[in-house]
Amino acid sequence: MALKKITIAIDGHSSTGKSTMAKALARRIGYAYVDTGAMYRAVTLFALRNKLIKGEKVDEKALKEHLKRGDIMITFRPTKDGKSVTVLNGKNVERYIRSMRVSNVVSIIAAIGFVRKAMVKQQQAMGKDKGVVMDGRDIGTVVFPDAEMKVFATASAEVRAQRRFDELRAKGDTTTTFEEVLENVTERDRIDSTRKESPLRQAEDAVVLDNSHLSIEDQNEWLYQLYLSRVRS
User: Do residues 107 and 192 lie in contact, with contact meaning Cβ atoms separated by under 8 Å?
Assistant: First the structure.
């Protein structure tokens, strides 16, 4: 008996490893994976490269025009090792969208109403046939409120900052301090939770996953068992 296809929404705070866990689950069950956070990071990178952000001010009129003209095309490209990279206008930008330069302003871009509407429209199109794992901030509340499986991932700010700090060091960043990363994580939590458009909040029917002290293996198994319970119900 074939298992029914469902939509899986994984939301939560920044640096909780949502993308890592969502990718692993999608690979294990043969679903498509969409990293919505990477989409907002790609828009942010485009805005930075086109000098549309000065300090904390965004040239919203110009950004809206770029989106309307279709100047910001975001897709995901699978890699040989079964992962995926973010592609902006035909170019792999995975490395650049994970930089602190982007991290420091992505929440500002993600709080803009017309940006969210444009991204949500793309995300809903990507998941219209189910069989998708999508992670972000508002998947279970806005993008797919009827998703059959919703998870809200969280961990302490210090644990999340340490993970992000270790990731930056592994990628060769030797200048960013732990204190800067912690400040960034805390500020992103504040902006994400208080923005007017699609604020970060736990869906009423989401299952909370606090992975502060879970190994990646235990976390992945927990998600897989939750998936099995949903498709067999």
Answer: yes
Q: Can you tell me the distance from the alpha carbon of 225 to that of 202, in angstroms, rounded to the nearest whole number?
A: 21
The number of helices, as runs of H, and strands, as runs of E, in the chain is 10, 10
Close Cβ partners of 11 (under 8 Å, ≥ 6 residues apart): 18, 135, 136, 137, 138, 139, 140, 141, 150, 151, 152, 153, 200, 202, 203, 206
Q: Which residues make Cβ contacts (< 8 Å) with residue 71, sequence separation at least 6?
A: 46, 89
**Whole-angstrom distance, CA of residue 109 vs CA of residue 128:** 25
d(CA 229, CA 233): 6
Residue 29 CA from chain centroid, whole number: 20
Radius of gyration over alpha carbons of the chain, in Å? 17
Tokens 């969502």 identify what position?
Answer: 22
- Number of Cβ atoms within 10 Å of the Cβ of 164: 21
pTM for the whole thing? 0.82
- Alpha helix positions (H), 30-145: 36-49, 60-69, 94-97, 100-103, 106-110, 113-126
Model confidence pLDDT, tens digit, residues 119-146: 999 999 989 999 999 998 899 999 999 9
pLDDT tens-digit series, residues 219-233: 999 999 999 999 987
